[in-house]
Amino acid sequence: MRIAELSRRSGVPVPTIKFYLREGLLPAGQLTSPNQARYSDAHLHRLRLVRAMVELGGLSIAAVREVLGALDDPAKSMQKALGTISAAVAPPDLGTEDEVAHQQVEEFLARQGWVSRPASYAHKALVGVLATAREVGHERFTDLLDGFGRAAMPLAEADMEYVLAAKTKDGALEGVVVGTVLGDAAMAAVRAMARRELSGRLTGEEDEPQPC
């Protein structure tokens, strides 16, 4: 297919496709003339994946490049790929030098019986979250952690079940991407729905009509 059809089938504008090609997020097509190229269904699949990461996942071009590098590296193990992909989609690790927050994270991990990995993106991100919460006057935010931990393990089990159900390593690695990027977005949406539902039950207030 030519780039116009690739654009039509993917929903990605031609200038954006050309940008992704220049940035190396999409492999070059097969040249049919100096200014024309043909693209395959593999290009369409990769383009849709990139679009999901950028538009829904909110990833930067640099982060998408890291994720695709993990997907395309034949020597990368599942564990390393998971670390690379998770780090690429992680929030900034603000406040990671905060000793109080570090201690709070270590105590949380000990209560959960989880291994402490201070160098991991998740550890640093949680330290940053707790440090920021304290800075804005919400020291009791740490009270939520154990509940988050109890809810997170079944979610992680569901994630890994989804990933390991893939028939190939490539499929499993792509499942990590989809499960992380789309899974986080879906979980945020479901959490917002549940919070709104519970708020209505507890307060007796009805939802305001939403604009069409």
Mean pLDDT reading = 86
Helix percent band: 55-70%
Structural class, from secondary structure content?
Answer: mainly alpha
Question: Low-confidence runs (pLDDT<50, min 5 residues)?
Answer: none
Number of strands: 2
N- and C-termini, Cα separation: 37 Å
Question: How would you classify the quaternary structure?
Answer: single chain
Instruction: Output the helix-strand order.
Output: HHEEHHHHHHH
Spatially, the strands of the biggest sheet line up as 1-2
By DSSP (H or I, 4+ residues per run), the number of helices equals: 9
Rounded to an integer, what's the Rg over CA atoms?
21 Å
**Largest sheet, if any?**
2 strands, antiparallel
Number of separate structural domains = 2
What's the overall geometry?
globular
Beta-strand portion reads under 5%
Topology:
Elements: H1 3-10, H2 14-22, E1 30-33, E2 36-38, H3 41-56, H4 61-72, H5 78-88, H6 99-112, H7 121-135, H8 145-164, H9 169-203
Keywords: DNA-binding
Protein name: DNA-binding transcriptional MerR regulator
Domain HTH merR-type: 1-70
Protein architecture, described:
With 212 residues, the chain is mainly alpha-helical. It folds into 2 domains: 3-56; 86-203, no CATH class. The chain is 66% helix and 3% strand. It has 9 helices and 2 strands. A two-stranded antiparallel sheet has the order 1-2. α3 packs parallel to α9 and α4 (61-72) runs antiparallel to α5 (78-88). The longest helix has 35 residues, at 169-203. The two termini are 37 Å apart.
